[in-house]
Design a protein that fits this description.
Layout lengths: L1 H21 L8 E10 L12 E2 L6 E3 L4 H13 L6 E10 L2 E7 L8 H13 L4 E7 L26 H11 L6 H15 L10 E2 L2 E3 L15 E6 L3 H11 L2 H11 L20 H28 L6 E2 L8 E2 L4 E2 L2 E3 H16 L10 E2 L19 E8 L2 E10 L2 E10 L6 H18 L23 E3 L1 H10 L4
Parallel strand pairs: 5-6, 6-7, 6-8
Antiparallel strand pairs: 1-2, 1-17, 3-13, 4-5, 4-9, 9-18, 10-13, 11-12, 14-15, 15-16, 16-17
Helix pairs in contact: 1-10, 2-6, 2-7, 2-9, 7-8
Length: 481
């Protein structure tokens, strides 16, 4: 083992110098906006002793691209905690044998899509429900039918918060359609293998009516006394964030952005009555998403200033994903200074360590798992760098931690580009800067990490019956009707 590590470190030193030498060519359109780093000590518990080093423009704001998701993760984890599970509640009432009415109280679960809907259907079948005369749901039930069905692991997955009436439309189109047998079988096999859950061989519920019902218009007192409430939970938040960062999932990021801001989706101006048959749903969803993001941005600014004393001259966000939004004249992006990113990542690492976790549990580990880090570009740093990539027209970015023989180094690299034609060159330059840090800190140190299985549900997601008294008290505490 000792011989292996000596050989490992000697070989990687050669590789690191090779990375630098092969990157020495003309960088005409690409320039370094800012590059910074700071050592992370195991006993660090605040930012007071943080010594941030790097380029001259440490405190100047630049486009972040998808490393914005690291910041979104920090906000969501600070608000909810790493082990938080989004708990969707299902009220069963007017039950007569296999028939019943259902009302869903959403929990803003960003992974509630086809997979979770199939699982919920199987769970409801298990308690004898096969026909639903009326299904209602509130605005916090943020169904995204294809949320986990990325055709390729890229950041281009559409970032849309679907309007409740759009969710209603999706449900009406999907609930009575036969399940995709291949997808259902794969889900059933996976839940059995990973969690020992026995889903039914076949599952289906017949729905007669599906309707969105604003949470302010639903009251438990309006239904019969013979009602029951069940809950179904997501996987822990840190696992949701891990999946978001591996594939740079814009939709998950913006859902968490809205959830962390605790935006009231039913507030005036955010929902409207059914406008009729001829509706441009893409336009409806886009405007709805934009309004929610704007509200969340204000809450984010307050959070950052209160938590880390970071004002808008150091960090300014318009969404949770880092993708572009359209301003009055051109595209606009999330921006932050290099030093602000170091402070955020350092604080995020402290938060994770305080919960017996680390950055490897929420970000990609190079060379260990499939992610946007790629398989070849950071091959020389395999198993020693934990990071999130970022790519937009004006910027290529990378942020995370480097594990070296001298300890952990938190870093952020912000490169300027003119277009996507410059991206390869910009990424090579970042790789060169990372290699310099490794050499400065006496080479790399392997990370002990085993990739986790990433799914939308686990052994704690099965349908659980709640006591009516506990549910009523929970509603009272959360100001629900």
């Amino acid at each position: 083992m000792v011989c292996f590590f000596k050989r490992f470190f000697s070989l990687t030193t050669v590789l690191l110098f090779a990375v630098i030498l092969t990157s020495q060519f003309s960088h005409s359109k690409v320039k370094l906006n800012s590059m910074c780093y700071a050592s992370f000590e195991d006993n660090v518990d605040s930012l007071e002793s943080l010594n941030i080093k790097g380029s001259d423009r440490l405190n100047e704001k630049f486009e972040l691209a998808s490393i914005s998701k690291v910041v979104t993760a920090y906000w969501a984890l600070s608000v909810f905690g790493p082990q938080h599970r989004f708990e969707t509640k299902v009220i069963v009432y007017n039950r007569h044998g296999v028939k019943a009415n259902l009302h869903i109280i959403g929990a803003a679960d960003p992974l509630f899509g086809r997979e979770m809907f199939y699982f919920l259907t199987s769970e409801l079948n298990k308690i004898g429900i096969t026909e639903v005369e009326k299904l209602t749901f509130d605005e916090n039930f943020r169904l995204n039918w294809k949320v986990l069905e990325l055709e390729s692991g890229v950041a281009s997955h559409r970032s849309i918060i679907f309007h409740p009436l759009s969710v209603e439309r999706t449900l009406k189109n999907m609930v009575n359609e036969p399940f995709d047998e291949e997808r259902y079988t794969k889900l059933r096999t996976k839940t059995k293998k990973l969690f020992g859950i026995d889903m039914l061989i076949k599952s289906q519920i017949k729905y007669q009516e599906v309707k969105y019902l604003n949470s302010k218009d639903f009251s438990i007192n309006s239904i019969d006394n013979d009602w029951q409430v069940y809950s179904i939970k997501s996987v822990p938040l840190y696992q949701i964030i891990k999946q978001m960062n591996l594939v740079s999932h814009n939709s998950i990021a913006d859902h968490l952005w809205i959830a962390a801001g605790k935006i009231d989706l039913s507030e005036k101006g955010n929902v409207f009555e059914d406008p009729g048959i001829k509706v441009d749903w893409e336009d409806v969803n886009s405007k709805y998403t934009f309004r929610l993001k704007a509200n969340a941005s204000r809450e984010f600014a307050k959070f950052m200033f209160t938590k880390l004393n970071l004002a808008v001259d150091e960090i300014e966000f318009i969404n949770g994903s880092g993708d572009s939004e359209y301003g009055a004249k051109s595209k606009i992006y999330n921006k932050a200074s290099c030093s602000a990113m170091i402070k955020i990542i350092t604080t995020l690492k402290i938060l994770m360590k305080n919960n017996n976790l680390d950055l490897k549990n929420i970000m990609a580990v190079a060379g260990v798992e499939k992610s946007t880090l790629g398989s070849s570009r950071y091959a020389a740093f395999s198993e020693s760098i934990i990071a999130k990539t970022g790519s937009v027209d004006p910027a290529i970015t990378l942020a995370g931690e480097i594990n070296t023989k001298s300890g952990v180094v938190i870093f952020t690299a912000l490169q300027h580009t003119d277009s996507d034609a410059d991206w390869t060159e910009a990424r090579d330059l970042i790789r060169e800067e990372i290699a310099k840090i490794y050499i400065k800190f006496k080479n790399m140190k392997p990370i002990d990490y085993t990739p986790m299985q990433l799914v939308s549900l686990d052994s704690q997601s099965t349908l659980v019956k709640l006591e009516q008294r506990d549910f009523e008290q929970s509603n009272l505490e959360n100001n629900l009707p």
